[in-house]
Amino acid sequence: MDIWAISLNFSTLTSTYKAEHVDLHVDDENTRITISVLYMVITVINLVGNVPSMWILLFRTSPKTVSIIFMIHLTLTDLALGVALPLQIAYQLYGYHWTFGSGMCRFMTLVFYTNMYCSILTMMAISIDRYLGIVKPMRFKQARKKKSTAVLSCILMWVLVLAVLYPLMTTDLTFEVPQYEITTCFDVLKKNMLPSTEAWAAFLFGMVVILFLFPFCITTFCYVSVIRKLTRHSRTGQKRIAVRLASVVLLVFILCFTPNNVLLLVHSVLRLFYGQSVYTAYKLSLCFSCLNSCLDPFIYYLASRDFRQKLRQLLNLQ
């Protein structure tokens, strides 16, 4: 049995349904079930990994350094995603039919994208903290001791992310398709969600360049600089941990974040200007973007000696 998946459509839709304005793509049932199963697996790993991580970070690590505060912030966004994912699973299993109302659709969509972009910005912040601590240890020694710096940074991350994603907060992201007796959630977008093509370009620029590409470049620079510094002036063990941490972070960017942001840009340009779509690939990339919430505990393990020790104690490994 074929399942109809509805692509992100940038037509000038009104509140009255017009079938000719909706571009439908046929996805086989196996694709829908595969995505659902992937979300289920991600949800389980997310909660199994991040609940103990949060407990260790909150109650077993001391003092609460700048890096630990960033890790707590990252874990909070991951747990929020873990709570929201069952809604996405139900949406997939119901055949792209959203039954939870417009407000919950906005909530789920915002959780997906705030998790992605807050994770990206937090990883950038952790990389900067390690860069300052290893490459510039004396110049920024006092600033790195201030917890208020980390808290303020987390607040600024949320302000920036929510400012870029503001259109998603003020738009009804559900759309009824009577022809198929379904209501979609963030699968049919109205072109007039933003007032002009220039506004759409600014929206996509904010997501892809400001919230992804720029942090990716900063993070890469910081970890490459750290590895170069440790290669010249450090013990083999410390260098090995730094290389592993950099590898995991870059893996998260390449595997989880890069495909989704590239396909978001490609898909949006194709829809806006050429009436074409790479929607199925985009949906799969959105699924893989959630994998970051499963990999983040590995980042904590490599980034914090205190976290490593407390986790080993929890698992009775020492």
What does this structure look like?
It is found in: Cell membrane. The chain crosses the membrane at residues 37-59, 66-87, 107-128, 149-169, 199-224, 245-270, 282-303. One of its GO terms (biological process) is positive regulation of Rho protein signal transduction. There is one protein chain. It is built from eleven helices and four strands; from the N terminus they run E-E-H-H-H-H-H-H-E-E-H-H-H-H-H. Strands 1-2 form a two-stranded antiparallel sheet. With 318 residues, it is mainly α. The longest helix is centred in the last third of the chain and has 39 residues, at 236-274. 72% of the residues lie in helices and 6% in strands.
How are the secondary structure elements laid out?
Layout: E1 2-6, E2 24-28, H1 29-59, H2 66-93, H3 102-134, H4 141-145, H5 147-164, H6 166-169, E3 174-177, E4 182-185, H7 197-233, H8 236-274, H9 279-289, H10 292-303, H11 305-314
Antiparallel strand pairs: 1-2, 3-4
Helix pairs in contact: 1-2, 1-10, 2-3, 2-5, 2-10, 3-5, 3-7, 7-8, 8-9, 8-10, 10-11
